[in-house]
Amino acid sequence: MSIQLRSVSIYSHEGERRDVEFRLGALNIVTGASKTGKSALLDIVDYCWGRGECTVAEGEIRKSVSWFMLHLDNNGEGIILARRNPGPAGRASDDIYLARGVEILPPDDKGFTKNITADGLKTQLSSILGISENVHMPEAGSTRLPLEASSRHAIMFSLQGQDEIANRRLLFHRQGEQFMPAAIRDALPYFLGAIDENHFLTLKRFNEAKSRLRKLEREYADASAVTREISTSAQTLLQEARRVNLVPANANAPDVDSVMELLRQASAPRPMDLTSTDDPTADLGELEDRRRRLRGELQEIREEIADVERLNRDASEFEVEAKEQEARLASIGLIKHGGTAADTCPLCENHLAVPVPSVLEIRQSLTGIEQQLASVRRDSPRLQARLASLEGRRTQAEERLRAVQVDLSARIQDNERLRIQQESFTEQARVSGRVAYYLENVKAVANDSRLPQAIERLRAEVSELEQALDDETLQGRLDTALSLVNRDLTAYAGELGLEHGDNPLRLDLKNLTVVADTVAGPLPLSQMGSGENWVGYHVAAHLSLHKLFRLRKRPVPAFLMLDQPSQAHYPPERDENGRIDALADEDQAAVHGLFELLFKYSSDPSSSMQIIVSDHVELLAPWFHDSIVQRWRDGIKFVPQTWLRS
User: Fold this and answer.
1) What is the Cα–Cα distance from 498 to 485, expressed in whole angstroms?
2) Domain span at residue 300?
3) What is the mean pLDDT of the chain?
């Protein structure tokens, strides 16, 4: 037995849990009215398994649920696989939680934290299922990449959604999505057992043996060329040696011996002239530092010159203004030189009882102006001298900077020459090394008499592995597997009384459909009429595949989920508490026959299969009643009413 479902659970935002438990190796029926959440069970399984998009329909579940959880059973081991609900309009969540060896479910979602990535989950589930290393190589000329079957491919054979089970053009889960048909075609041979577990190892051994054989054949060809004619490799190396001046450009090589002698000359070590190829960057740093210091010094001098010029300009402007004020005071001509008493009128020289304040101020202003003018005239020569000194320093600094820049330019030119010399020496050393390696290998190969025997042994090994990987052999194994599937497919179609079921039926792997081989020619499922046939052939094909999966113990989940298989006879809009009494006799018989086949299939001890069906119908048969695990009617739904937010 492989992986089966113990339960599907949901958690509310408040941490409450709702479980839908299933019986292992048995038929499990979830019945109920429309819009109760039955279809969400399959979508939750698909999403938790690692699908890149949450397909749970928008509504109560998306709004009220925080986490989805699967409780898986792997041959008695309990495995929890939980994933956060992305919420309304959300595409998917990266929060995935995986725990092994779990028997008691967590009461709330507080312990769910991301502990695995989507790719890590694929690897873990593949390992749990027992999927070994494998690869499908597309046919020659195909643009498809090699495919490795994984758990993401295995789940496609265990799910049939409501819009898939009655589809006449699509047989498998997600077959209508881009690139999925090719993935299903490439993965199915592995899951059917047509490509055994040793195929991948045999393919790796074959590729490695071919690679070793090509290498030895090249070495042997070079060795043979040395003794018979000038080899292409030797000529190419000789041209390289001429290009980098390891040998004279006009050196002739008319025969093998001449070529080998020139190559030996080219491989001889050559000392490097250290006197002409010193370090190209030895003094560039020092010159750059000097230039940087001189630029800083020159900038400081320029700033000081600007300050002195500004001070000199301000003094000149003050002197002009002060002279104008002095001239205005002196031009009055009324104040006597030699000094007039403070109490004497400067105009009539009469005695004043109270000195006039304005006279004092005029005298003080005139005196102050004269003193300031004297100070300016005294400092002006000093400013001119300082300015001349700074101009001289600036000239010297500019000359030193020009000299450093000249040295720097010269050094850069020298360095370019040295760089070219070094690159030339490096190129010569590289070519010389290749020539030496070639000569050493040719010598070793020429002296190794065991090489032909090693090539013959490898050729025999490649031939043997090629036979094991022969397309006809692989196709034969695939034909055998499909023949077994087709046998059971025909038998199940006969039990269901499907149209064209009395003809040989086969699974068309190329077109991923069911074909009836009639007298008039092949008839694919898309050309068969009625929804009853479409649903019936979907169910029959998947039961046939899983029967072979189980017999060959293939790494595919041992459960099959079917959503609304009775829809062709009992559509949701005609639901009357699940009873089918109102249906026509042939519809009642078809629905009864479909569920009875599912019950018999899951009850067969050799199948060890778990079948989970979500549907509206409720048959009166005791075995059907015993198979019901959930009944969602009269207000009972997947999401409890208490979880719904106003």
Assistant:
1) 17
2) 284-427
3) 81
